[in-house]
Amino acid sequence: MGSMKRKNFHILLFLFLFSSTANIYAITWVATFDTKGTACDLIVNGNYVYLADHNDGLKIIDVTDHTNPQLVESFVTDGWALSLTMDGNFVYIADCSKGLSIIDCTDPADPVLTGSWDTSGYAYQVAVNGDYAYIANSKNGLEIIDISDPISPIYKGSYLTGGKSKALYLEFPYVYLTDEQNGLYVIDVTSPDNPLLISQYVLNGALGVTKSGNLLYIAASSSGIKVLDISDISTPVLAGEYDTFNKAVDIEISGDFAYVADYAAGLHIYNISDPTDIKHTSGYSTNNYASGLAVINSYVFIANKEKGMEVVYITNQDLEDPVEDDPIEDEDEESENDPEENKDESKNESEETNNTETNPKNESDDTATSANTSENILDNTGETSSTDKGSASDKVSKVSSGAIIKKVSKEEDSLSSIDTYPVSDKTKASVSSIAKNNPSKEDIISNKKHLALTKKNMSSESKKDITTKNNIPQKNAAPNNKEQLKTIVINSAIFSGLGLLLLIFIKKILLR
User: Fold this and answer.
1) Prediction pTM value
2) Domain spanning 32-448: which CATH class is it, in words?
């Protein structure tokens, strides 16, 4: 009996010490910006966020001061802006039933419609490379448009997948196209008028997709994360998977970490250094529906449906490989609990009537009804899918003990004004944009050192002024990685010591 008690004691001791020292990851709230629409997707270019705001079109937001985003301008498109990408000064919008909209944003304060193309289906996502735009076109699969003259786009070719294509990743000459019913398609677009299927991997719920090295990462709705090895592009092989907390709808990769928009479960971060053994590191509840994201150094910008845009800061993502050292990576059945049904019911019902009566596409089950539902992942047109995960409250309880989910006032984030950021490597970005804007690891490390040197050279008087202005103690002012890590480790040691004393006391009682 005594041996059993000692064994149980040692198990309790191990679990306590592990839990008290594992809490080294933090996600800190920085700012929220209400777009007034339904935020579906976003990209970051320089000091601006370009956000697809569903029936409110395009929103351009100045995030020079991360704690205080400011609306620069809005542009209402003819359809429902579901997703977007940027190439040069042009923003390309997947505009639902209205196809492709091309907006000249040379002056962010004065966006101008340059051209448009009414696709044969519902445009969910778009990527651009050179003279061509590649569109995930719902039931009409992949559609390729010649945009060499942005004023007059021309149809070039298409590939029909048989299901509903809602996302793609472009790495010329291949398009990696997801189909919600039929999985992943690898398509050779060397000849845009004759795209050729290279391979297919069957899985359910395939939505967002991105690529890193020879691995494809798929946000597969209720099926979570799927990792495919495409070393042999003709035969994709499952390399790893992870069942997320709700419905994975968008995914981005930065270094050894995957950032997942997990819809009702918010933002979740996973260590993918070993794709065969994916580990959850931290999570953050957005209190709405995270539908898209962009990762910029230690900041994550989240398209958060009814709540608009949310900005969070990642602290000490990994002791060996902090997230700020990683390269930058630039999106059912209808539910009665539709989170959008009260958003703008009269407008949505009006648009539903117009689409039903005038839509020449005649996609009976693609009819645009209300805005997207809690079960309607990336499905802002009213199209239905068969995946279902259950309520978020049932799933969020799975968050590991190694995560700290924290919200603080915006004044506590002093790393809020960094003048310039390169373009996010979004799933929607073109190959040319990725090559031009995705910095090397050396560049980012150099930039980090420059930022650290700038902070170090601040005069004590300047620091005092900043503290006085914000009316907060200096120790609370900045998410300083080294200081926070030191504090967390010290606190962990203190709690571990107290826990050890408590358990020794319990041991004495048990052994009497």
Assistant:
1) 0.65
2) mainly beta
